[in-house]
Amino acid sequence: MSEKYGSLIPTGRLLDGKPRTILFDASKCIGCRQCVHACKDWHDHPRTSVYELSSTNWITMEPPVLEGLSPLWGRNSCMHCEFPMCAAVCPVEAITKYEEGPVVISQEICIGCEYCIYACPWGVITKNDLTHKAAKCTMCSDRVSEDKNPFCVQACPVGALDFGLAEAISAKARKGAEENGGYLYGDKEAGGTQLLYVLKEKKGDYGVRPVGLERYPQHKIPLGLMLKDLFTLRCGFAGKIRALYLAVIHPKRLIYRYWPWRGVA
Amino acid sequence: MTNASELFPQKRVTRLPGGYMGRILRVNLTTGSTKDENLPEEPLLRRFLGGQALATYILLGELPLQAKPYGTESKVVMMTGPITGTGFTPGGTKVTAVYLSPLTNYSLGRGASSGFWAVYLKAAGYDGIIIEGAAAKPTYLFINDGKAEFRDASRVWGKGARETEDLLKQEVGIKDAKVMCIGPAGEHLVHGAMLVNDYNNNAAHSGGAVFGSKKLKAIVVYGTARPRIHDRDKLIDAGQRWRKTLDVYSVDHRKSVGYARQLEALPNLNFRSTLIADHSRGFDQNRVVQRPCFQCARLCPWHVEIGEGPFRGKIGHFNGGAEWMDTFWNLGVKGNATLYLAERINDLGIECSHFAFGAGVMFEAWEKGLLGPEDTDGLRLEWGNVEVIDRLLDMAARREGKWGNLLAEGPVEVAQAIGGDAPKWIVHTKKGTPAMHDWRPHFGQMLRELVASGGMKPQGGGTANPPPDLKYREQWGPLDRDDPAGWPWSNVLAEQYRQFCGLTGGCWFAQMHLKPDGLNSIVDSLNATTGWNFTLDEGLVAGHRSVILQSIFGTQRGWIADHDWQNVGPRFLEPVPDGKYKGFTIAKWLPEMVYEYYRLSGRHEKSGRPFMDTLSRLGLEEFKEWAQRD
What we know:
The complex is a heterodimer of chains A (265) and B (630). Chain A has 265 residues and is an alpha+beta fold. Helix content of chain A is 28%, strand content 14%. Chain A has helices at residues 2-5, 34-42, 85-89, 115-119, 141-144, 151-155, 166-179, 223-231, 237-249, 254-258, and strands at residues 11-12, 20-25, 60-62, 74-76, 95-98, 103-105, 126-127, 134-135, 161-165, 183-185, 195-199. Chain B contains 22 helices and 15 strands. Chain B folds into three domains: 4-222, Aldehyde ferredoxin oxidoreductase, N-terminal domain (Aldehyde Ferredoxin Oxidoreductase,  A, domain 1), CATH 3.60.9; 244-425, Aldehyde Ferredoxin Oxidoreductase Protein, subunit A, domain 2 (Orthogonal Bundle), CATH 1.10.569.10; 443-626, Aldehyde Ferredoxin Oxidoreductase Protein, subunit A, domain 3 (Orthogonal Bundle). In chain B, a hairpin with a 3-residue loop joins strand 10 and strand 11.
C-alpha cells in the first residue's frame, strides 16, 4: 500500500489485506431498495428518504420512482475508488483507504470542510446537518473486518449484488457482461474502483455518471470555500492546526488540493 | 374486562419491551380530535403481543354490543406487532385491522396487509391506531413523525386507489410517505371493500367499507423513527435463519395459472368446473417485475406490464396469491384480460371474491334463462364478456343501478333478487366470501374456511404432517386426504401458529411452517426483539388466545358454531364437479368435522363458546360471562 500511495492518502488494514469488490449486476436488479433499507438497518440510521443521498441514506437506487416501476436501475453510492480523491483532498487525513477495499471517513477526525463532497467524482458524499461531518457508505468496514459481506449485499433478494475477493468478482463480472452482451463500469473509471457494475444499456439510462479514467480526477472544490478555510475560523482551530501539521509532514498531499490539474500518480 | 383508562396507562410502570414504539394513536372523526395513548403494560403485551389479538382485545373493551358496522359508534382498531419494521426479519411487515364485519353483521371483521405502510406507521411513532366516529365530509388522516392531523380529502374522493396514493403523496409533499386508502368501493359501502396500500397490497374483507362509512379516504404515514431492539445480533441471526426457510416466488410463477396448480382446481363458470386449460395464455409475453414487501425475500408482490393483445401496455400491481385471476376465470375470462380486470378491481378496491361470487350467480342465471336483457338494462351476461364485466365492476364499486347495488351487497342478495334456484348457486360462509380459490377438493382448507368468522380471510388449513418444528410434541400423519381423521386437529394447530405469526407483526405468507426452523426462527425473532423468552408452545397458546378472542367477539353478537356449517352457500359444499378429485366433498363429514374442531380448540361444538377451563388456561377469565356453562 505504501508503494502505491506514498503519503498521498492514509491507508490501513482491516483483516487480511486482500482487496475485495462489490458487484452490482444491473440486469438482475428489480429496484426493490432492500439494499437501501438494509444499509439503514445495519448502521441504525433513521428511516429518512430513500430517494436521495444523505448522511443517513448512503445508497440510492435510480431513478427515484416507486420500487419496480422502472425497466432499468442503477446503484448510486460510494464506489470505493482505488485512488480516492476524497481522501487525497482531505486536509486532516480523516479518510482512509483500506487494503480490503473500503474508503472510510473517520467521524472523529472529520472537521466538516466539505472538500471531499466537492472532490468526489460520483457526488456521493453528503454532510450531516447535525454533526456537520461528511458521511458516506463504508462498505460495512466493520463487517469486512470480521470477514462478512456488506449488509446491502446480503440483503439483495435476487442476487444482483455480490461481494468477494477482487479477482473472483472481476472474473464473475466479466463473465456476466459477456453473457448478456454488456460491459463493465467501475473497473477503469477514476483509475479503477472496488464496485463493479455490469451494465448493458447507456450509462445515463441507469443514472450513473460518466467519470473519466484518470486517477484522482480533478476536483471541483470552489475557490471561495478554500479561501474561507484558509483565512477564517471555519472548521475550528484544532482542525486548522491538524491540517497545518499534516501539510508540513506530508507536503506532497497539497498538490491534489491546490493544484488539482497537476496529477502526480 | 379492563377499561380503557386502565388499559392505556397514563404513565407506564413496567418497561416497554423492545420492538414497540409505545404509543397508540386514538382519532375521532366526529370531533376531529387525536390523542396519544400509552401502549398497555408489559404483562398485557406479553399475553396479546400485537396484531389481531391486541387489536381485538381493545375492540372487545370499547365497541358497544349494540353497535352497527357502519354506525358512528363503530370502531376500527389497527395494530402492528413488535417485529413489524425492525428491518432484520423477512416477514416483519404486518398490520391488522379489526372491526365489526358488515358482511356478517355479527362476527369479527379483519383485514391485514403487508408492504411498507405498517413499517412507516411505526416509523411515525405508533404501534397502532384506534379510529372512532365519522366525519361529515371526506377526510384523510396524515401522521407525520409523531404528529397526526385530519385533512380534507375532497380532492381524492371518488378516485381509484392508485391515483389516490399518488395524489396524497404529492399533497403531503413527502415522496417516502406511505398511503393506505379506499377506492370508490369503500366510499360507497360495498360490503366487501378493501383497504389498499403501497400499490401492491390490500387488506380485504370490509375494512374499506368501514373506512368509507366514516368518510375516511386514507391514512398517510411517514416518519423516521425505528423501534428499540432488545438484542440486535440475535435478531439478525434469527432473521437470517427465517430468511433461509422462505420459498421464493419466481417470475415464471407469475406467468402461470398460479395457486390453482397447487390446489389442482381452478374455478370456472361459477365453481362448476375445476379444470385448468389455457387460462394463462399470453402471460409468457408479459413483463413481470417482482416488488417485494419491506425487507422480505419471498417476493410475493409483483408488477406486470401486459405484453400482447388488446390490453397490451396496461400495468397491474398484485400480491402473492392468484385470487384476482381466479376471480375472472370464474367468470369465463381467459388470458391477459384477466390481469386487466384484476388491476381494475384492485384500483376500485373491491374484494375479489365478493364480486366473483355475486357476478358468478348473475352469469349463471343468464345462462340458465333466469335473467335476460330486459332484466339487466341490456347488459349481456355472457361468460367471458370482458366489456360487461368491466362495466359491472364500476357499477358494483359505485352501487350504480339495481345490479350494481346488489353486487355491492353481496352474492346472497344477488341470488335472492334473481330468485328461483339461484340461492343454490352461491358460495359464501356466513355471508362472507372465502378467499377466491376453489378449495373444495381439500379437507384442511375447507374446514378452515367454514370455521372462520366469515368476515376475514381465515387462517389454518392444516397439513398432512405436523410442521417439523412441532415434531417434539406432535406425532401423527401423514393424514389421508380422503379421510377426515386428524384434519380438525391439524387445522387447530395451523390456526394457532399462523395467528401467532401475525401477532408478532410477522406476515403469515412468510411463515414456512413446513420447513425446519420455519416456526422457531419466528419465535427467536420475537424474543430477540422484545427480550421475552417465549417457547414455541407459548407462541401457540398466544395464537389460541387470539382465536378465542375472535370467537368471543362473535358470541357476544349472536354467532354460534352451528352457523359455520348451516349458513354456507350450497355451491361451496357441492361435490367437486370434475378433474382429479371429482366427487370429493367435505359435506359428507359435516357437521362432525366442525364439531370436532371446536371440541379440540376448547369450545362447545354447537355454541362455539369457550369452556371455563379454556379461558383459565389462556388467562382470559375476564370473559367468563361468555363461557359455555354446561
